[in-house]
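Dear support,

Our group has been running a series of protein-ligand predictions, and this particular one with magnesium ion is the one our PI (initials K.S.) wants archived with full inputs and outputs. We had some confusion internally about which version of the output was final, so please treat the block below as the authoritative record. The input we submitted was:
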Amino acid sequence: MKVYMEQDILQENDDQADENRLLFGNTLVVNIIGSPGCGKTTLLEKTIEALKDEYRLAVIEGDIYTTKDSERIEKFGIPSIQINTAGGCHLSAEITSKAASDLDLDDIDILFIENVGNLVCPAEFDLGEDSKVAVLSVVEGDDKPAKYPLLFSEAGAVLLTKTDLLPYTNFDKASAEKDIRALNGDAPIYEMNVLKGEGMDKWLDWLRVQHKAKTIK
Ligand code: MG
Ligand code: ZN
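Confirmed final output from the archive:
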């Protein structure tokens, strides 16, 4: 009997992720990870609104069951592919490759992947992306970076969302930032109120820089 260990599964995933990197070519791929309700889809809506005339965009939506998020993306008239994981709590490189093969990647500058809402295993599964982006809303608590260190150590950028709600929480921003810095010396931390479109500029510029770096490679 062959017993698949977590290690084997992750190794197979890493091999597929390497193939995905070839498949993605010059397309910048950004894997957005955060808890349910942290504002990933709203972030995508506002980001698409801001960048759709500047770049050719596409989205892969990972959800456990529904198509609610991709319906929100479709109204922008950009390609969007829904993955339903049927209970699965993360996207794998394999399912991502299947979804991506439905896209004309040569005609896409930036591909966003909205991972399943979860702070744990999405960080373990490399999808072949250029960057993981960690989204943490202040209502989730300042202890989350220390409690879920892998995501925050792997993230290319950390987005602190719903900052307009700070007065109504006991979120200690300095403490969260200190914990993020201990895990990750490089990732910029951007504070934003996505719903009102506040604090988006630095994030959009970060995407522009990542895209430029990808096309120069
Ligand atoms: Mg969503
Ligand atoms: Zn999972």
